Amino acid sequence: MGVRVFVASSSGSVAIKKKQQDVVRFLEANKIEFEEVDITMSEEQRQWMYRSIPPEKRPAQGNPLPPQIFNGDRYCGDYDSFFESKESNTVLSFLGLKPRLASNAEP
């Protein structure tokens, strides 16, 4: 199954769109394989995403907003968690992936 990024293609929020693009572009730029899952196109996928986020990681009110990141069935985190891992250069660990050889390491 691998890394999956849950997004909403028809989000009216510019902030959400920007966060989704940031995650996707980073993964593409670093040649990290992933699947983009559009929750606006599949009620089943949307419900799976909501159910699969651990209760302690859900917002106090409302539903979790995209992007939400998983590796298989393991929840990695939301955009803020992703951003923190990017800033600390620990994205592979955040995604549950094995470190690469030095020549292919993240910039």
Automatic annotation (TrEMBL):
Keywords from the named record: Nucleus, SH3-binding
Pfam name, any one: SH3BGR
Subcellular localization, as worded in the UniProt entry: Nucleus
SUPFAM superfamilies: Thioredoxin-like (SSF52833)
GO cellular component labels: cytoplasm; nucleus
The keyword Ligase is assigned to this record: no
This protein's record includes keyword Nucleotidyltransferase: no
One GO MF term: SH3 domain binding
Family: Belongs to the SH3BGR family.
Protein name in UniProt: SH3 domain-binding glutamic acid-rich-like protein
